[in-house]
Design a protein that fits this description.
The complex is a heterodimer of chains A (437) and B (196). Chain A has 437 residues and is mainly β. Chain A is built from 4 helices and 33 strands. The longest helix of chain A has 17 residues. Chain B has 1 helix and 9 strands. Chain B has an 8-stranded antiparallel barrel. The chains are: A mainly beta (437), B mainly beta (196). Chains A and B meet through helix 1, strand 1, strand 13 and helix 3 of A and strand 1, strand 2, strand 7, strand 8 and strand 9 of B. Strand 1 of chain A pairs parallel with strand 1 of chain B.
């Protein structure tokens, strides 16, 4: 008996020693880029209206009255009839190659299609028609981390087709295995384009205050904004103005150089708040034809959408794929003196993306951590007034519309009844992979 | 034949009766401190396609554990284990059920088997910015020696095998959208402790 026991114990110990290796694997979903060339003729020919289809890779959202536009990154727009927010209905899909942004004035929808700005008549939302096109105005952009550039020699787009693949590597069970940073150039390039990645993937919320009647609402992360008789579009380092005094005939007006890493544009009253990877630019827009820089509120390099209410700008900073930076925070900035913006307070967050303010309610998207609702009455104690936190959803961006709240995330499009900000109620969801028909 | 069987039953059950007659269920505590020994093999350049050159490193970590429960029979003790394991880059608190069973009879040095199973929590682990460390399954079978009087306090020396799962969500690098590490810690444990 004793011998057997001894043998057994030795066997067990020997076996356990033999297999005492930590076994750690890291799984990453990575982007792979394949260079492709698409001729402008092809890009223009491919614009057409198709039957409604399922959301696959939703990007920005835009609202105009009872219609809702959800961008399918680089592919086109879903048009959704939202007359009943509890059961939105897809009416059409407009295939627009290279589309990332949109804006609506009256019955005209402006959308980018790689280098072109397209104007579509959406009087019949089931069947939008191209009415005009400003050709070859945008020089470069990025979708999902894949850049595209306009090649004037052959009049084509040199793009990188992005595909995702999963790889698993063996690690040494410590926090940071050697990163795959590429060899410098790639990284710098990607960083420079941080904005495009984010903006093509995300869109945010807050009203686009407009001079012209019948404008829709986009987000703080939008790169398109309508004001007075102009359509403003921000590129990587410039602001383009289009004259849309006749909505169906947009005309290129002028370009304002902004500096590096421009991400978003948020018009508020007669000011333009421009989010860049290095900070927030404030422009005076009292002469809409010639915006003038008032100041730059600088912080570390990070992704930073901005929304504004009265004298306070709400800026989120997050660590993220393309943005660098090491903070996840919400900054409240005093902008009473527009020439000298001043930090009020920084709050630690989990991974803030888009945000929206319907004062005093502040909606903050925390990516995979869900949606947070704050009472922002006291700018010094926003974090202690968390009204609710919806965790089981992915939140990229919101549009607060007073009584309803729209939210887009990787897993779909949500609508909430926000009449009681303390008690948000989900009205509907269009999940990714399923058409709302 | 019948006689033989009766005799056999007598011989085997009598000692147990004798024990049961004097045995009373009582509180059991075993508190141990130990080291967790393991190795890890990885290519430091795996993230860049790998160079085919794996590096093997030793891992030595500290572990504390206490079991509180009942000595149900002279041989069997059951209880709840709580512990603290300092892995190189994770602080794990295993909580679970523990079992101690004496394999050999009454003597001052007894061999016992232990089986602990539970979940390792990461409540006290402080993540760096952007990281999210979550615990997982913990399994810990082993053998030990109890040295001391059968009814009194004893010193224990235990050898066991520990498996601990940990998952870490990490901030992705530039060309990635998701980065998750699955860790399986497999360690050989040597523990010293007291039991009463």
């Amino acid at each position: 008996m004793k011998t057997a026991l001894r043998t057994a114990s030795i066997a067990i110990i020997a076996l356990s020693v033999w297999s005492c290796n930590d076994n750690c694997t890291e799984t990453r979903v990575r982007r792979s880029m394949t260079p492709t060339t698409i001729s402008l003729l092809e890009v223009r020919k491919d614009l057409k209206t198709e039957a409604p289809r399922a959301l696959e890779h939703p990007g920005k959202i835009y609202v105009r009255d009872k219609y809702l536009f959800i961008n399918e990154v680089a592919e086109g727009l879903h048009i959704i009839d939202n007359s009943d927010p509890s059961s939105p209905r897809s009416v059409a899909f407009v295939k627009i190659p290279g589309n990332g942004d949109m804006a609506v004035r009256g019955n005209i929808l402006y959308a980018d299609s790689y280098s072109d700005l397209v104007a579509l008549d959406i009087t019949d939302p089931k069947n939008p028609k191209e009415v005009n096109r400003v050709e070859e105005v945008f020089r470069s952009g990025q979708f999902d981390g894949g850049t595209w550039t306009y090649n004037p020699n052959i009049r084509a787009i040199n793009a990188q087709k992005v595909t995702f693949f999963t790889e698993t590597i063996q690690t040494n069970c410590e926090d940071n295995p050697t990163p795959n940073w590429g060899w410098g150039w790639n990284t710098a390039f990607a960083m420079a384009d941080a904005s495009f990645f984010r903006s093509s993937n995300v869109s945010s919320a807050a009203p686009t205050s407009g001079g012209g009647g019948g404008d829709g609402q986009g987000g703080s992360m939008a790169r398109f904004a309508l004001y007075d008789k102009y359509l403003y579009t921000v590129g990587q380092n410039e602001l383009n103005l289009f004259d849309v005094s006749t909505p169906s005939k947009p005309a290129f007006f002028s370009t304002v150089q902004l500096g590096w890493g421009i991400e978003t544009i948020f018009p508020y009253k007669d000011k333009l708040f421009i989010g860049s990877t290095t900070g927030m630019h404030i422009y005076d827009n009292s002469n809409p034809a010639k915006p003038e820089r008032l100041s730059i509120f600088q912080h570390g390099r990070a992704c930073d959408p901005v929304v504004v209410h009265n004298d306070i700008a709400y800026v989120t900073i997050r660590t993220g794929t393309f943005c660098g930076g090491a903070q996840n925070q919400l900054d409240l900035v005093d902008i009473r003196d527009l020439r000298r913006p001043q930090l009020i307070k920084s709050y630690q967050m989990q991974n803030p993306h888009g945000l929206g303010i319907d004062f005093p309610t502040l909606y903050l998207c925390e990516g995979e951590h869900g949606l947070k609702v704050f009472d922002a009455t006291d700018p010094f104690s926003v974090d202690s007034r968390l009204l609710s936190h919806f965790k089981k959803m992915d939140a990229y961006d919101v549009i607060p519309l007073g009584k309803t709240l729209m939210m887009i995330g990787k897993d779909g499009f949500y609508q909430f009844d926000a009449s009681d900000s303390k008690n948000l109620r989900q009205l509907s969801k269009i999940p990714v992979g399923k058409a709302a028909i | 034949m019948k006689k033989l069987i009766v005799l056999f039953l007598f011989a085997t059950t009598l000692p147990a009766w004798a024990q049961d007659a004097t045995f009373k269920k009582h509180y059991l505590n075993q508190t141990e401190v130990g080291i967790m020994l393991g190795r890890v093999k990885a290519d430091p350049y795996a993230g860049q396609g790998g160079r085919g050159q794996e590096i093997v490193q030793n891992r030595t970590n500290l572990s504390l554990q206490t079991l509180n429960g009942i000595q149900c029979s002279p041989r069997l003790g059951i209880g709840v284990i709580t512990g603290m394991d300092w892995y190189n880059s994770a602080l794990v608190n295993p909580i679970g059920a523990g079992l101690r069973y004496d394999l050999t009879g009454k003597s001052t040095a007894r061999l016992y088997a232990s089986a602990d199973a539970g979940y390792g929590f990461t409540w006290f682990h402080d993540d760096s910015e952007g990281f999210d460390t979550r615990g997982g399954l913990m399994l810990n079978p082993g053998l030990g020696l109890r040295i001391g009087k059968p009814d009194g306090a004893a010193f224990t020396l235990a050898f066991s095998y520990k498996h601990q799962d940990v998952t870490v969500n990490k901030p992705p690098f530039t060309d990635q959208t998701v980065r998750v590490e699955n860790r399986n810690y497999n360690r050989f444990l040597i523990r010293l402790g007291v039991a009463f």
